[in-house]
Amino acid sequence: xxxxxxxxVSSSVxxxxxxxxxxxxxxxxxxxxxxxxxxxxxxxxxSNLTQQYELYPALAITDRVISKTTSVFQVxxxxxxxxxxxxxxxxxxxxxxxWAGGRSFHAYQGSTEFLLSPQGxxxxxxxxMIREAQSNxxxxxxxxxxxxxxxxxxxxxxxxxEIIVGWALDVLENVARSSVVANYxxxxxxxxxxxxxxxxxxxxxxxxKLTASALLEMLRSISRRPPxxxxxxxxxxxxxxxxxxSGLYTNLKGFAELxxxxxxxxxxxxxxxxxxxxxxxxxxxxxxxxxQGNSDFSNPTYYDAYYRYYKEMLIGAPVFSxxxxxxxxxxxxxxxxxxxxxxxxxxxEYTFTSMIVIPTPKTVNGEYTDDSIxxxxxxxxxxxxxxxxxxxxxxxxxxxxxxISALGLSAAVASAIIAIVTWYxxxxxxxxxxxxYADTAKNVIDRVRNYxxxxxxxxxxxxxxxxxxxxxxxxxxxxLNEDELYNYTISCVAEHRENQAY
Length: 502
Prior knowledge:
About 40% of the residues lie in helices and about 20% in strands. By secondary structure, it is α+β, with helices and mostly antiparallel strands.
């Protein structure tokens, strides 16, 4: 066994939790050993520059939110991005009834952006379908924007299936074992009220609509950082009747489990330091402390108005765990997603929040497939939402391919254009809208290249397409203005020249 992990709760506290919340004995040696395997497994993955992204959650939101929104915690959700063997990307995670149409759905994972830009305004079918879905977890096909490296999926959990002792340990661990919920919640519980309230700094009013432009940039930035590890006890306790809508209960009752997550988060600081080795980041866990944290969070008036439902942001957050077997620790794996928040159980200075965890899609030989994703969506009752999202993504992908093949644009520029236009079920409508931007982009590319050639700056020619793509992303709809796009692109290229001087 590897070095001992600083488990944030004692055996006596877990004994009380067992009698109050689980109704079965918790074997502390199992809790200790699975905590060590889980925390060490996550720590090792985070030190791997590529594989660490298995652990990163996605952060999801829409450009616009409905007028009833009062807090950022109502609209940001966690989830995961899965790439299937067929090469398609899916968002599987939390949804918010405060999301509005009219613009796009965004998910950020490891700073990579995934997008769904359906046609229509707030009454668009897909947005209404999302808001009316009984499931808190939805499945959407999304389109990756300029993915720069091979995508890494989270691996499923592997249990003990070795010898008799291993099977016995597996049975014990199926009662309760340690797990970690990966999330970015502390960045928000630590935010001042003028960031959290709506309208406010991160979600403001523009043209009579609530827009989340500033929040989108914050989510992109946050998503490139390793997540915070929240300690939790994962059980196989059956979910109580009434905790899930009756239409879904039959489908999920044999799969959903209860998890007991430890709060306040600052109690877990030592565990965070052990896993991440980043004391400067782990200090964010202090912000939900009533004595040493965010003063706005501790203010009763502000808390009731803006922070009370902060745990709702955890819906969709991935749960990771590792089995401790006779042969040693199994690899860290994805055990499920947070589906909903239930009750709080107070034990001494601790609060254990009970939550429902649901499994993730099945894999075939360890790989996710389009069929397994659709089967999973149907189990959640959101297959119709997934089917409609697939139509939009198919349209966008075909339009993007045509921009490249027919107009000679680079993949980077074509992807940037598709990211700012509306996607229709009819791909030709999507293409026609994109072509206006493509024609402008082609003119700018020619102008910038001519300028660089005439000034003998040949070493900067390789940056032109990248800079045009970046400028389109920054300008959005204003990228139709050729002179504006040209000026932005020239500035971008000039920055590369300056960087070469150092």
